[in-house]
Amino acid sequence: MSSKLEAIGIAKRYGESVALEPTDLAVQAGEFLTLLGPSGSGKTTLLQMISGLVTPSAGRIEIDGRDVTHVEPGKRGIGMVFQSYALFPHMSVWDNVAYGLRMRRKSREEVRAAVDDALSMVRMTEYARRFPKELSGGQQQRIALARCFAYRPSVILLDEPLGALDKKLREHMQSEIRRLHKELGATFVYVTHDQDEALTLSDRICLMNQARIEQVGTPADLYDRPATRFAAGFIGHSNLLEGALDDTRGASGEPILLAAGGRIPLPVNAMGASVTPAARHTLLVRPEAPRIVEPQSGFVDGTISDVVFFGSDTRVQLAMNDGSALTVRCERSLTPRIGDKVGLVWDPYRTTLLHA
């Protein structure tokens, strides 16, 4: 699979303020890549430099191997969808979608065919003669998508397009965007700070923090094998257990981490050249990994301090013997009670040791 889009040493400074450190990123043709991170991490700055709305301080942007760093936005062959729908209130839905095509001086027949196709794609054909004020938020967002899709750009940039929608509508539009991505076959670069949205939509996620890339990988890579403590804490719900490696090994020769008041076996392959027994380490244990057992029969013991019902499952908060806290996701069939003393056990290969 070839690279459709590349950022090579791209960086942005505003005086002494660094908006983006020198960054390399390749996006494959037809890929759905999400730029994920907290506010101020540099994700929107990177997107704006790709689009041409912001001029980089260093580096270059290439599309299909062509340097477009100093090419104006309208000539890059890129479509852009913003959080603000930016629809013209005095124009009908049909005319809003047609606007960009008319600006590109397409023929009347080309405009008609492209607009009808785009409205059909977002399932808004019957609303063609309505005006934006007559549409719901979700319908307006579909029109914004249709306007972008109408001229079939090969790269589509989406800057938090669902941020203004309520939870149920946002989840529905996520499904619609996934469907549209498959139908179009275009390369999508999507900005969000919502980790669940990134996990749901993406082929790959580019996790950003403090104006640089923290980790790039598939949703499964970032969830199951985060490279850093920040990645572990930002993606999904996390139990981060602090401890040191024991001088002794377990019964099967596995390394042991002394943490949360217990002896926790690690995967045999957790040890690397950079791991020193004296150093402090962090173990990532996702809430779905532990299983509640009788006290003193697991890796660690604790007391149930809170139980929260989430519908499909129950989240149990435990106060561990060393004073730390740990969250466990339980099936609804279990009925844990506040104050119960329990043990926890899990498959060591479902955990990740984050090296110092």
From TrEMBL:
Task: Read off the SUPFAM superfamilies from this record.
Answer: MOP-like, P-loop containing nucleoside triphosphate hydrolases
Which controlled-vocabulary keywords does the entry list? ATP-binding, Cell inner membrane, Cell membrane, Membrane, Nucleotide-binding, Transport
Q: Read off the Pfam families from this record.
A: ABC_tran (PF00005), TOBE_2 (PF08402)
Q: Which residues form a coiled coil?
A: none
One GO BP: quaternary ammonium group transport
Q: Note the SMART domains from the entry.
A: AAA (SM00382)
What superkingdom heads the lineage?
Bacteria
What the entry lists under InterPro entries is as follows:
AAA+_ATPase, ABC_SmlMolc_Importer, ABC_transporter-like_ATP-bd, ABC_transporter-like_CS, Mo/tungstate-bd_C_term_dom, P-loop_NTPase, Transp-assoc_OB_typ2
**One GO CC term on file:** ATP-binding cassette (ABC) transporter complex
- One term of GO molecular function: ATP hydrolysis activity
Domain ABC transporter intervals = 5-235
Give the protein's recorded name.
ABC transporter
- Which organism does this sequence originate in? Caballeronia ptereochthonis
Q: What is the lineage of its organism?
A: Bacteria, Pseudomonadati, Pseudomonadota, Betaproteobacteria, Burkholderiales
